């Protein structure tokens, strides 16, 4: 199921979802299969394993994870995430078995985790174990997100640098991409292979007539989004080329030439 995304300017991306389903689904920017990296220490992680669900005091256990812990989203359903721990920056083998920080793990990150931080986190999540957490709680702690995205794409206008022309023509098709983002914003590298509706003026005898035919468009680009409100702002740019059939090459001046399409807009539905 999809959402509807509207763009003004040159590029419009649309992903469709029935209105009834939009009302029932919780708001979530995550999806199954994404990689999540914490930006701050998090708690409220409930273990999936039965023998971990009860703490030493007999109460329900709530596990903790330091910043830079990596999770894989196994399931995103009804506002609850099931997360598998891929990497914990605390090394339990240091200081006689007391959890301490793995120094090598900090070399590639601006976020540091001290030995004291690791010692204070109890109970600590374990690599290879799974936990559940409310998606709204994860938003509070902050995170980086990496994962595939997909949807539908519409491009109403294209700019052709070879002759400096701005041409209308509806391009429709799917897009796939990979999103690199953090809490509140993200950037995605996307690609599309779509069908383009082309209209050109041709001279037949002494009259100008309009011909309509179809072409295939290939494009790559970037999509930037800021999700600080219920209507996320999105902008980006795409580059691509159109190819028409051999019967129309002589009448379509942009066949095989690079085009550029900018995007600007807001999401108005989920």
Please provide a written account of the structure.
- The structure is a single chain.
- By secondary structure, the protein is mostly beta strands.
- The protein folds into two domains: 5-22 and 145-267, Beta Barrel (Porin); 40-141, no CATH class.
- Helices cover 7% and strands 53% of the residues.
- It has helices at residues 19-24, 115-120, 135-141, and strands at 5-8, 12-14, 35-38, 42-47, 63-65, 70-77, 80-87, 90-91, 100-101, 130-134, 143-160, 165-182, 185-204, 207-226, 233-244, 258-267.
- Strands 1, 2, 3, 4, 5, 6, 7, 10, 11, 12, 13, 14, 15 and 16 form a 14-stranded antiparallel beta sheet that branches. Strands 8-9 form a two-stranded antiparallel sheet.
- Strand 13 and strand 14 form a beta hairpin.
- It is rod-shaped, with a radius of gyration of 25 Å.
- The chain starts with a strand and ends with a strand.
- Residues 1-28 and 94-108 have low confidence and may be disordered.
The averaged pLDDT comes out at 76
CATH fold annotation of the largest domain:
Porin
User: Uncertain segments of ≥5 residues (pLDDT<50)?
Assistant: 1-28, 94-108
Shape: rod-shaped
- H/E element order: EEHEEEEEEEHEHEEEEEE
CATH class of the largest domain: Mainly Beta
Indicate the structural class. Answer: mainly beta
**What's the alpha carbon Rg, rounded to whole Å?**
25 Å
In CATH terms, what is the architecture of the largest domain? Beta Barrel
Q: How much beta, percentage-wise?
A: over 45%
Main sheet: strands, sense, barrel: 14 strands, antiparallel
- In total, the number of strands is 16
Kindly give the count of domains: 2
Helix content: under 10%
Number of helical stretches of at least 4 residues: 3
N→C terminal distance: 10 Å
């Amino acid at each position: 199921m999809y959402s509807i995304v509207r763009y003004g300017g040159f590029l419009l991306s649309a992903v469709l979802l029935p209105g009834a389903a939009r009302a029932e689904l919780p708001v979530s920017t995550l999806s199954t299969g994404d990689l999540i990296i914490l930006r701050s220490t998090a708690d409220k992680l409930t273990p999936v394993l039965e023998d971990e669900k009860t703490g030493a005091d007999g109460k329900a256990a709530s596990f903790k994870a330091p910043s830079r812990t990596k999770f894989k989203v196994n399931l995103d359903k009804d506002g609850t995430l099931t997360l598998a721990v891929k990497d914990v920056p605390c090394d339990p083998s240091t200081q006689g078995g007391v959890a301490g920080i793995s120094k090598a793990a900090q070399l590639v990150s601006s976020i540091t985790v001290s030995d004291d931080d690791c010692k204070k986190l109890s109970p600590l999540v374990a690599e290879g174990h799974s936990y559940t957490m409310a998606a709204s709680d994860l938003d509070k702690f902050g995170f980086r997100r990496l994962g595939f995205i997909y949807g539908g794409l519409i491009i109403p206008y294209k700019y052709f640098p070879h002759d400096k022309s701005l041409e209308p023509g509806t391009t429709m098709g799917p897009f796939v991409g990979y999103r690199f983002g953090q809490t509140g914003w993200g950037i995605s590298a996307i690609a599309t292979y779509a069908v383009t509706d082309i209209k050109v003026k041709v001279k037949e005898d002494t009259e100008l007539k309009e011909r309509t035919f179809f072409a295939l468009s290939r494009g790559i680009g970037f999509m930037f989004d800021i999700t600080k409100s219920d209507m996320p702002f999105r902008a980006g740019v795409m580059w691509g080329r159109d190819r028409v059939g051999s019967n129309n090459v002589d009448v379509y001046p942009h066949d095989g030439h690079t085009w550029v399409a900018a995007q600007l807009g807001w999401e108005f539905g989920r």
